[in-house]
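queue> holo job accepted (adenosine-5'-diphosphate)
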Amino acid sequence: MADLRRNIAIDLGTASVLVFMRGKGVVINEPSVVAMDSYTGKVISVGREAKKMLGKTPGNIIATRPMKDGVIADFNTTEKMLKYFIEKAVGKSFFKPNVVICVPSQITQVQRRAVIQASRFAGANSTYLIEEPLAAAIGAGVDISDAGGNMIIDIGGGTTDVAVIALGGIIINKSIPVAGDECDKAISNYIKKKYNMIIGERTAEDIKINVAKASSPNDNDLFEVKGRNLINGLPMHVFVTSNDIAEALNKPLTQIVETVHSVLEQTPPELAADLFERGAIMTGGSSLIKGLDKRIEDRIGIKVQIAESPILAVVRGTGKSLNWIEKLDSSEMGEESMRKKAIEERLKRDS
Ligand code: ADP
Ligand code: MG
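queue> job finished
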């Protein structure tokens, strides 16, 4: 019998939520922000509309990001957000969809269960989880069942995840809570200290996306930034240099680069040799920070390539996994133990 369910894949990120539907591709790509009435708890808007309200909501409306560092920070709000996006993607249907959601590979069992439960409450039939580095790799076009190693560097809003994968499993990975958001914060802190000016979250993000470069630029361009005077609270503007921004970003970017380096250091020699041949792949929105690929490349001595659509790679890979959804076991990756064995065997053979 034909399955009338519409199955969907969700990348439930700290910065954005993306939804993929087979045959349609990515149907939703919106910020993971929810605006609610603080008295009644009613949702006022979700996604793009809600993001516009961040930082400028009147007293009774609060705009929040329910995901933090890749995991659910606020369960009820996450559930409401998921419900909104699932309904938006699937439309009104008698059949509840099966849902695959990617999760960071280092999250706890409790955090995994929270995702499954939120998804169920939000209207999913069955929920399956896939580890994000695997999803990112699949989405970037890597054959993850390959015995050779591949390195995936996913730099999102809340976290940077670096993983080496082989034979469909994760060999090593490391995650740090430093990514795009920390860069935004670093920019606003720098401007506050140096120019006594407060800027909003979105201004800092604009600067990062449009002006920032990961290494000290030779040209010292000036650009105007508007904000509020730290001392008297009045609107003001200053001219910031590209070197200012490079200096501001140095700390978070160094932390990111060193994380990649430490994962490479722990990679078994055989797989490291594969990486030298194949290079590493970057995904996630913050992989687009200008010059970051080059900066990582210089540090680790391995070619680093940004995936074709770095922001869509994870959800596309999660979407492809819909094809083998029945092979997955909800709450756990079904083939985990099998895969681990295969990897151990390969490592034994190599050593
Ligand atoms: P998550 O998976 O955590 O939801 P994403 O992969 O969607 O995160 O990446 C979101 C981050 O990417 C944000 O910090 C955003 O500012 C940043 N970002 C998006 N586009 C760009 C760009 N062109 N240049 C630099 N940073 C970007
Ligand atoms: Mg992500």
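queue> The chain is about 40% helix and 25% strand.
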